[in-house]
From TrEMBL:
Protein name: Transporter
InterPro entries to which the protein is assigned, alphabetical: BCCT_CS, BCCT_transptr
Record's subcellular location: Cell membrane
Source organism: Oceanobacillus kimchii
Alphabetical list of Pfam families matching this protein: BCCT
Membrane-crossing segments per the record: 7-28, 48-67, 87-108, 143-162, 183-206, 226-248, 260-279, 321-339, 351-374, 406-432, 452-471, 477-497
Family of this protein: Belongs to the BCCT transporter (TC 2.A.15) family.
Gene behind the chain: yeaV_1
Topological category with respect to the lipid bilayer: Multi-pass membrane protein
Length: 535
């Protein structure tokens, strides 16, 4: 066991932050969750606007990069071929960035919007229907995917163009922070990233576990208790621990393949046996609603809620701000992953691919699963909203599926899919956490025991909170954990532009070719004296 490989300051720092959150919560559960909740309200209430600006900014930034000269840079040398075909590239990208939460929200998000619509519209009105079907897609659409793509730019650039085996966020910030990447600032950046990801993963586990528990309850009759939920968390952790133990190629690939087939089955089944025409038309209509209202949706903050005497709906804070924060905490992690699988593509291909395939995938989930539930509600055949209010959202999800023919087949497949989905997100997450808390990643993989360690650490926070009854608190953990990640994102965007523009200026290229090959070594030999400061 090579302990020298571990980056101790980062490793211990991240653990210390985690313990400073977990221990007070165990000792003073009530006061603890109150503090977390007021931190959430404080952040979303006062800084919500920053999250929305960052979201719009990220989309504009990556579109600008895609169509600029920097976008033409190829990730890899002249003869490097694309490592993965577009289909498997898109599938891997999707299953790294998307977890069990999409099953949860695609099924049920519309119900919350129908009951509590945006833009201060009357709840459950005719107008609310369109928004109910569209807002979920928006929250899983281009802005969200832009947040995911942004960190991939500097990481992929350093990995394949500057040929530095960077698996750290601090390294990717080096062009801006220079030698401070090796000092405390670098450590802080990595710790904040780890903390963010632990928060994001917490949100995912806190949502996914009760849903899986409801599925199991429906199938076996075992009551949904804390004990059942704890077992589910342990099983999911074990699955991702084992698969991450067997290596990124074998483990993750097998799980993503399984994932893909189960997903196709569920979506096709609901589409064919559900109200096919309603699903198609409503999805198509939603796309129009989103295109038409894109900027209003991306900027709506309900300013009048700040006026004394006017009651706010809390929609922006509970949804758009929460979502951007949640995508944000996963972003550096997904960026690392997207970067790794994008060898041989140009920056532009990587950007547009992530935006388009990512969004399309989410449209399919929300379009099919969400509109099936909406149909049940509107046609009066099953009152989903009353069911949620009487029982819970996870119970309503399973109850919606129960309306399908062959429900006895669909519900187990859905439950297994949720478990596998949770596992794929977590095994790539534990892989990346271990890579970041290591000085060096030899042979392309972090140390095994180290990876297992993070796999179990990911479970500690949700598990503790569950036993003290704070799983709901954890559902919004992303918000607070995501706050510092906003600044990291700006750093990453800046680093990419700085480094790639510098290299482009050193590189001769013709106007006509679509891909520019940047050969850093050759440039350096040519301009030995003209070194970039901080390098
Ligand atoms: N996002 C996509 O739980 C999951 O599905 C992981 C969640 C950020 C909302 C990612």
């Amino acid at each position: 066991m090579n302990k020298r490989l571990i980056d101790w300051p980062t490793f211990i720092g991240a653990l210390l932050i985690l313990l400073t959150v977990v221990i007070p919560l165990i000792l003073f559960p009530e006061a603890g969750s109150e503090v977390i909740n007021s931190a959430n309200t404080f952040v979303t209430g006062n800084f919500g606007i920053l999250y929305l600006i960052l979201g719009m900014g990220a989309l504009i930034f990556i579109l600008y990069v895609a169509f600029s000269k920097n976008g033409r840079i190829k990730l890899g040398g002249r003869d490097v071929k694309k490592e993965f075909g577009t289909f498997s590239w898109a599938a891997m990208l999707f299953s790294a960035g998307i977890g069990s939460s999409i099953l949860y929200w695609a099924m049920i998000e519309w119900a919350f919007y129908y009951q509590g619509p945006p833009f201060r519209i009357t709840p459950e009105s005719e107008e609310a229907i369109n928004w109910a079907a569209s807002y979920g897609i928006f929250h899983w659409g281009p802005i969200a995917w832009a947040l995911y793509t942004l960190p991939a730019l500097p990481i992929a650039y350093f990995y394949y163009v500057r040929k530095k085996p960077v698996l750290k966020i601090s390294e990717a910030s080096r062009p801006v922070i220079g030698k401070y990447a090796d000092g405390p600032l670098g450590v802080i950046i990595d710790i904040l990233f780890i903390f963010g990801l632990l928060g994001g993963a917490g949100t995912t586990l806190a949502l996914g576990t009760p849903m899986i528990a409801e599925g199991i309850n429906h199938l076996t009759g075992i009551p949904v208790t804390l004990f059942l939920q704890a077992i589910i968390m342990i099983i999911c952790t074990a699955i991702f621990a084992i698969s991450s133990f067997s290596g990124i190629n074998k483990g993750i690939k097998r799980l993503s393949d399984l994932n893909l087939w189960l997903t196709i089955f569920i979506l096709a089944f609901v589409f064919i046996f559900g109200p096919t025409l309603f699903i198609s038309e409503m999805t198509f209509t939603s796309l129009g609603v989103i295109v038409n209202n894109f900027f209003s949706m991306a900027t709506w903050l309900e300013p009048q809620a700040n006026i004394p005497g006017i009651e706010g709906t809390n929609f922006p804070e509970s949804w758009t701000v929460f979502y951007w924060a949640w995508w944000l905490v996963y972003a550096p992690f997904v960026g690392l992953f997207v970067a790794r699988i994008s060898r041989g593509r140009t920056i532009k291909e990587m950007i547009l691919g992530t935006l388009i395939y990512g969004t399309l995938g989410c449209v399919l989930f929300f379009g099919v699963l969400g509109n099936y539930g909406l149909y049940l509600q509107l046609s009066g055949s099953f009152d989903v909203i009353s069911y949620i209010n009487e029982y819970s959202a996870p119970a309503a999800i399973i109850a919606i599926l129960d309306q399908l023919p062959l429900a006895w087949l669909v519900i187990p497949v859905f439950t297994v899919l949720a478990i596998v989905f949770l596992a794929t997100t977590f095994d790539s997450a534990s892989y990346i956490l271990a890579a970041v808390a290591q000085k060096q990643v030899t042979k392309g993989e972090p140390l095994r025991w180290h990876r297992l360690f993070w796999a179990f650490t990911l479970m500690i926070l949700p598990m503790t909170l569950m036993f003290i009854g704070g799983l709901e608190t954890l559902q919004t953990a992303s918000i607070v954990a995501g706050f510092p990640v906003m600044f990291i994102m700006i750093l990453l965007a800046w680093s990419f532009i700085k480094a790639s523009t510098y290299d482009l200026n050193q590189t001769k290229h013709s106007k006509s070719t679509s891909a520019i090959i940047v050969d850093v070594e050759r440039n350096q030999n040519r301009k030995e004296k003209n070194k970039e400061p901080g390098e």
